[in-house]
Amino acid sequence: MEIADGLELDLVEISPNANPPVCKVIDYKKFLYDKKKKEKELKAKASKVVVKEIRLGPHTDDHDFNFKLKHAEKFLNDGSKVKVDVFFKGRNIIYKEKGEIILLKFAQALEEFGKVEKMPKLEGKKMILIIAPKKKK
Asked: Would you say 127 and 121 are in contact if contact means Cβ atoms under 8 Å apart?
């Protein structure tokens, strides 16, 4: 305590359960600042998951399908997840099978760029498929 007072620093108990207890003379505010700074750095380095959404209809034509496929391919190459959904308006809900076929065709076309994370599932008026990018070697 006298040494800490002499240096105008804080006496911090490192390991209270040890025999005798281990203490360290440090500037506690600077210690907390450095700790916070390290945590912030780690948080900044952590990868953020980006989900891009592509919307199709149950009667999507080949040209539109290929156009959206190229966009999805680009998103997967950039490392983003792709959420593809088929939206059923009004009475189009009777074409559920068509929507599922389109989503499976989409997943099959993107097989080399990503893997299916969630198979097509009907949620309300939308049928959703999620594709995650493949790990780069």
From this structure: yes
Tell me, yes or no, if the pTM score tops 0.90.
no
CA–CA gap between residue 106 and residue 84 (Å, rounded): 9
Q: What is the DSSP letter of 43?
A: H
Domains annotated for the chain, with CATH where assigned, are 2-45 (3.10.20.80), 51-133 (3.30.110.10)
Measured CA to CA, the distance from residue 15 to residue 66 in angstroms comes to 63
**How many residues in total does the chain contain?**
137
Q: Are 27 and 4 in contact (CB under 8 A)?
A: no
Reported as a single tens digit per residue, the pLDDT across 84-103 is: 999 888 888 887 888 888 98
